[in-house]
From TrEMBL:
Keywords, alphabetical: Acyltransferase, Transferase
Organism: Microbacterium foliorum
Domain N-acetyltransferase, residue spans: 8-147
Protein name, as recorded: Ribosomal protein S18 acetylase RimI-like enzyme
Entry keyword Acyltransferase: yes
Name of a matching Pfam family: Acetyltransf_1
Regions crossing the membrane: none
Ribosomal protein in keyword set: no
């Protein structure tokens, strides 16, 4: 399972790293648009950490941990989990999730959430296998219309 894979919180990104993230983005979302400046700003954001999975130094997966103080305690959210198609099935997503879960526990987060489309059955099985529980809730989104 995932031999030769290292997981870390990115503190800097090279031009090659940015190209790899750009290649991963359409595998995550058909509508997402790559913006190198926005990706680099993640590294400086106070409550956001970009976890990367590397094989021989090359990014093959990523996930983002977002933390926020709430009245009920510190809350975490996992966003943008994606592993390159060519390396799927090797346990890389499980390693990313494990690293994020460990980090969230070290930080004392009271909750850690993630969302996934119902059609992503294998992803849902993975999330449940590492301890996430489906909740009886609805996710609502407001997206302001552009000019």
């Amino acid at each position: 399972m995932a031999d030769g894979i290292s997981i870390s919180i990115a503190d800097r990104l090279t031009a090659d790293d940015l190209h790899r993230i750009e290649a991963l983005l359409p595998q995550l979302s058909a509508t997402a648009r790559f913006d190198a400046e926005r990706v680099l700003s993640l590294l400086q954001a106070q409550n956001t950490d970009l976890f990367v999975a590397r094989e021989s130094g090359r990014i093959v997966g990523m996930a983002t941990l977002v933390t926020a103080p709430l009245i009920t305690g510190w809350h975490g959210s996992i966003e943008d989990v994606v592993v390159d198609q060519s390396t799927r099935g090797r346990g890389i997503a499980r390693l990313l999730l494990g690293a994020i879960i460990d980090e969230s526990q070290q930080r004392g987060l009271s909750t850690l959430d993630l969302t996934s489309r119902p059609s992503r059955e294998s992803a849902l099985r993975l999330y449940e296998s590492v301890g996430f529980v489906r909740r009886n809730t609805n996710v609502l989104r407001f997206a302001p219309q552009g000019d």
